[in-house]
Write a structure and sequence with these properties.
Layout: H1 3-32, H2 36-106
């Protein structure tokens, strides 16, 4: 192989290596490229997720507040029931006392 053939062979090999590198680079960018529509879709999904998290937090806060209010109302109702039952018990005892008094007088 003379000098000219060696230079031509080397040039062909370098050109083929360049072409393969360029093709590989093009394929990599083709498959890994993020399109603008994908970015806008991701932005929309992120915004929707953020809004859903805010709504969830508000719902949790509302449920906790409502539960606290209902627990307070239940405690108050139980206290009122206990007081009413005590009053009823005293009224029954008093009625029984007066009934006994009345029966003692009528005998």
């Amino acid at each position: 192989m003379n000098r000219t053939e060696f230079v031509i062979a080397t040039a062909v090999i370098l050109f083929v290596a360049f072409a393969l590198g360029w093709a590989a680079n093009w394929l990599v960018h083709r498959f890994t490229r993020v399109r603008q529509s994908d970015l806008s879709e991701l932005d929309r999904m992120a915004q929707a997720l953020h809004e859903a998290e805010l709504i969830r937090d508000q719902a949790i806060e509302y449920v906790e507040t409502r539960e606290r209010d209902l627990t307070n109302r239940l405690s108050q109702t139980e206290a009122e029931l206990s007081a009413a039952m005590d009053g009823l018990r005293e009224a029954r005892a008093e009625a029984e006392y007066y009934r006994d008094q009345l029966q003692g007088v009528t005998r």
